Here is the input.
Amino acid sequence: MIDPNKVQLTDDGRLKHFLSTEGLSRELLTEILDTADSFISTQERAVKTVPLLRGKTVVNLFFENSTRTRSTFELAAKRLSADILNLDIARSATSKGETLMDTLWNLEAMYSDMFVVRHSDSGAAHFIAEHVTPNVAIINAGDGRHAHPTQAMLDMLTIRRHKESIEGKVVAIVGDILHSRVARCQIHALRTLGAAEVRVIGPGTLLPADIDSLGAVPYYDMKSGLADCDVVIMLRLQKERMQNALLPSEGEFFKLYGLTEEKLTYAKPDAIVMHPGPINRGVEIESAVADGSHSVILNQVSYGIAVRMAVMAMAMSGQQTLANSEEPAR
Amino acid sequence: MRYLHIANARVLDPATQTDSVTDVFVADGRIIALGHRPSAGEIETEIDASGQWLLPGLIDLGGHLPEPGYSQKGSITSETEAAARGGFTHICSLPDTKPVADTSAVVKLILEKAARAGFSRVLPLGAMTQGLAGEQLASMFTLAEAGAVAMSNARQPIRNSYVLRRLMEYAATYDIPLFLCANDLSLSDGGCMHEGPVATRMGLPGIPATAETIALAQILLLVEQTGVRAHISQISCRRSISMLQQARENGLRVTADTPLANLLYTHDAVTGYNSLFNVAPPLRSERDREALLAAVQAGELAISSNHRPHEIAAKKAPFSDAESGMSQYDAFLPNAMSLVQRGELTAEQLIRALTAVPASVLNLEHGLREGADFNAVLFDPESEHTLTATDIASGGRNHPLLNQSIQGKVTHVFLEGRRIH
Amino acid sequence: MNLPDIEHITQELAGQVTELIEQRQLDNPLLVGIRTGGVWVAERLNDTLNSQDEVATLDISFYRDDFTRHGLHPKVQGSELPESIEDRHIILVDDVIMSGRTIRAAMNELFDYGRPASITLVCLLDIGRRELPIQPDLCGATLALNDGQLVKLTGPRPLVLTLA
Here is the structure.
């Protein structure tokens, strides 16, 4: 069996690609958060750019549209002084693997140093990492239902900055866990970083089979699920779930799982509320909560840049030292 | 009369309950004597098979031939040569070629090309519906006349219970056997691996066991009603095994097979997104695998190849985008024998599931008896070698053992006395 | 080789810095130490100067010109500078000056925070081997090392110098 971490780590355990939070050590996840913390300080300066990746080329390779995510990666790359190329490749253009490989070969010919990949197939980032020439770092910006590790890490950073530590916290993730790549990555990261309990709350149709095998405890109602929670993470509900016989209506979902001020009282009084955005107000969360004192949703956005800068710098660093170790000693 | 003398081989044939070092004498394509020299004639060729096993030729109840239609994946010649190397004397070809094997022309083309190639004998499965679309009955009688041994719809769905009922009734009229895959598309559609903890962790859409068992229940009830001769292809779930047992207890004569891959691997193999393990039916849980092994041990389940060759590009894609299927014919017998080495099956159980059980499904005469056709395999269990790309006859490059060390080697394969490998 | 007494040199250097501040009439100077050794030295100097300001720290990890060769330092702690360094007189402190590349990176970073009125460079030890045209304004001691030899400062209290 192939160890999935072989792909994303160097032999000495440093980050080479960033594909998933699964299997990464507590030390490495903490290092990402620490590095992101120091980038937050550079983001508060007059000049927000650091020259770390000067002369490097980063390609935003988006097989699935997402202006928001692409923009944050673009800004992160620019603040590291990298050159950035945005490629939006409509899904229809790459119907099969051959075309994906062709795309990769073309990009390699441009001497790119890093691909930020967004793709609707789970495992697409792994696939690209395995097939790309050496010394090109792959950052997973979301693959199917599998992983969206930078989003999960910015959520970890948000929790750490608002709650001191993740250790010992009770965290609930609410909504469409089945289709959520963010939730999977959050569960792995929260478990590794020492959260006391990770809960997933939603109807049976939106909780995947065997979710407990990931170390998350399923709950089907908000009252018991939110009891004693320090952190409440709401997920975005996609409209198409209604058509696939997964949910009867937005109204019934909101009645059962929509986060209202009343439901929030089930959690700890100082609980924070998070949402990866964009928010469907009145579907998964009411405005009073989204804009209320418990909400840290806007902070999440600004931490996103710092986290992406951190993993980009770390992955490039892992690649660079790899390349260097292949050269004769100076 | 001049004959072939195979000396000192361990003859292992569950059909005749033989397991002993016995000399075998072959002339005119038949076994003329076992254990003693024939009264007349002289030796033409002698093979000293010391240390080797002589088995009946393997019979495959379902493999995919890429011809006609998919020349980038191989040809009838390349795949039948691969099958011969793997120990098969007979292979049933699934009808999902392009064009589909729903006309006598396609069936005859397959038979002619296979005969000209001169390797394993192909027993074509005809399409049970036109274009495998699951709606209009194919001309089953004509296909059977042209040489199709049974009818199949590959893994394509039959539109509804009405059509399934009618095609069973029609086939039953002419005693044409049906090879049915139990696959409820409304439950399996979009899935690319077994639904379970591995799929959840990897974020891959799953195929629940009920996609197979619900379809199987429908098939079994209609078989009971129509009395058609039915064989269930490519069973993968534990629950299916008990459903089949119950059906047989109720007097239904229904047989089944499982692909070798489902005995060798579980869904854990998918960890790491290795697209080689994107197969249909999907690799399921360890409990499922154990139940399939138990059914093989009990002699209730045949083992099929589910061979499906692919070119490199078909597999070089993210897991769910890769084409499903695994190339199995090359080194099939050594690969299957690893179950014996692991102690999960006895050699006798394995060989029965690859010879006697499929032969009875197809009503083929078989067995290493005096007077019988000499369809046999010589297998050297001690040989060890690495399977490299140049050792592979198949046009497919998706073989699970490629560049791996394998134990055991098929040294000779005979079809009606003629050496085909 | 006899290594100099670091505690002693530090005291002497503090006196020289005080003199220099008076001589150049540096009003409200800001001591900026380069992580990690430079911060220790700057804190010692600050004790003697009786400054009201805390020592500012500069982490040049994001500015190194050898990133492509050595990668990111695993424990980047970040810089801690006051709200503004605009028009401040900066006394930049490092423990050991060698190639001059660290100082160049530090000055690049300082200018990303604002435009200081002046920068004065103070180093505890100068071990030569310069690769850039950068010289300290004040230096505690000069050491001539053999090829391949390096020095390492451990601290913060006491400051100890060892050969590496």
Remarks:
- Chain C touches chain A through 23 residues (CB under 8 Å).
- The mean pLDDT of chain C is 88.
- The CA atoms of residues 152 and 162 of chain C lie 5 Å apart.
